[in-house]
Design goal:
This protein is mainly β and about 160 residues long. The protein has two domains: about 15-65, Roll (duf1285 like fold), CATH 3.10.540.10; about 70-155, duf1285 protein fold. The chain has two helices and 15 strands. The strands form three sheets. Strands 3-2-1-6-5-4 form a six-stranded mixed beta sheet. It is elongated and about 50 Å long.
C-alpha cells in the first residue's frame, strides 16, 4: 500500500523557491553549512536532477526552481558581476549569458544565468529592477551590455496603434 500524501516524508534535501536550504524538513539555519553544501557537493545530472554528492554517498535534492538567487550586482570597468545568495560572483559575459525563462510561480519570463556546471540562478526581482536602470532599449527588448555581449533582460510590450 502506498503512503498517503500526509504520510510521505519531506525530501531529505530541498532548496526552496527563495534559495533556502532544508534538511529533513527543517531549514538549515547556518549559512556556512548551506554554502558548504552548495560549493562542494551540489551537482546536476544530464536529466536535470540535482544531487548532493560526497566521496561516500549521493543524495537527491529537490529544487523548487533553481538552487541559487542573484541578490546583488557590481558594475566594473569590464562589465557586470552578478552576486549570488551563496556568495558566487558570476561575471556576466560570453561564459555566463542571461537566459529568459518562464519562472514557475507566474510563468513570467525572467532572466536566469548559469552560475557553474549547469547550476542556475534566477535574478531576484529587486536586482532585476536595478539592472533595468542600466539597460538600453534595442528594438522590442531591453539589453545589458557586459563584456562584449548584449544580454536580454526582457521584452518591451509593443503598444497598439
Amino acid at each position: 500500500m502506498q503512503p498517503t500524501e500526509k504520510e510521505q516524508k519531506p525530501p531529505l534535501f530541498r532548496i526552496d523557491y527563495d534559495g533556502r536550504w532544508f534538511h529533513d524538513g527543517g531549514e538549515i539555519k547556518r549559512p556556512a553549512l548551506a554554502k558548504l553544501f552548495a560549493d562542494k557537493g551540489l551537482r546536476v545530472d544530464e536529466n536535470g536532477q540535482h544531487w548532493l554528492s560526497s566521496p561516500e554517498s549521493r543524495y537527491p535534492v529537490t529544487v523548487d526552481d533553481v538552487p541559487f538567487i542573484i541578490v546583488d550586482y557590481d558594475i566594473r570597468e569590464d562589465g557586470i558581476d552578478l552576486i549570488g545568495n551563496m556568495g558566487d560572483v558570476v561575471p556576466l559575459g560570453p561564459d555566463h549569458i542571461l537566459e529568459l525563462r518562464a519562472e514557475p510561480r507566474g510563468g513570467v519570463q525572467v532572466p536566469y544565468v548559469n552560475v557553474r556546471s549547469g547550476l542556475y540562478a534566477r535574478i531576484s526581482r529587486a536586482v532585476f529592477y536595478k539592472l533595468v536602470e542600466h539597460a538600453t532599449p534595442d528594438h522590442d527588448r531591453m539589453v545589458l551590455n557586459s563584456r562584449g555581449i548584449c544580454h536580454i533582460l526582457g521584452y518591451v510590450p509593443q503598444g497598439k496603434n
